[in-house]
């Protein structure tokens, strides 16, 4: 088993871009983290959370409640998560491996709002 790397979650993870390791394409931003406690009571990160249901509580106040409420109105029930097992490198961005599905809300926005705009599609897609 490989020894775990100690990182400062707020400094090295929160608000960082998450990119696919194989091609560098943007996946999301780290909006919040899912934590668990080890046998000694020390916290460790189990997953990266993304989207308005994750970011809203961090923002707090009226704006945070509006963000989370709008996501719930659009059918979101829990923030999408990327298990830490998929993280291959933490640098200027968080690099993840595997085939990750885009969050449902981002997929809907891209399909219904962005792609209909002339010139919005990339040649290689």
Task: List descriptors.
single chain, 4-stranded mixed β-sheet, 3-stranded antiparallel β-sheet, 125 residues, alpha+beta, SH3 type barrels, globular
Short description:
Helix content is 29%, strand content 25%.
Polypeptide structure, described:
The protein contains four helices and seven strands. By secondary structure, it is α+β, with helices and mostly antiparallel strands. A four-stranded mixed sheet has the order 2-1-7-6, with no helix packed on it. A three-stranded antiparallel sheet has the order 3-4-5. Helix 2 (52-59) runs antiparallel to helix 3. The longest helix has 13 residues, at 61-73. The protein is globular and about 50 Å long. It starts with 8 loop residues before the first helix and ends in an 11-residue tail after the last helix. The model has no long low-confidence stretch (mean pLDDT 84).
């Amino acid at each position: 088993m490989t020894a775990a790397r100690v990182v400062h979650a707020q400094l090295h993870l929160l608000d960082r871009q998450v990119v696919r390791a194989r091609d560098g394409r943007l996946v999301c931003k780290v909006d919040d983290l899912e934590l668990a406690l080890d046998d000694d009571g020390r916290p460790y990160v189990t997953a990266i959370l993304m989207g308005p249901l994750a970011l809203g509580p961090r923002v707090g106040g009226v704006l945070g409640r509006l963000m989370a409420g709008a996501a719930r109105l659009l059918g979101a029930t829990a923030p999408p998560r990327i298990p830490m097992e998929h993280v291959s490198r933490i640098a200027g961005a968080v690099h993840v491996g595997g085939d990750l599905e885009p969050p449902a809300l981002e997929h809907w926005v891209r399909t219904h709002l962005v792609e209909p705009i002339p010139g919005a599609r990339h040649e290689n897609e």
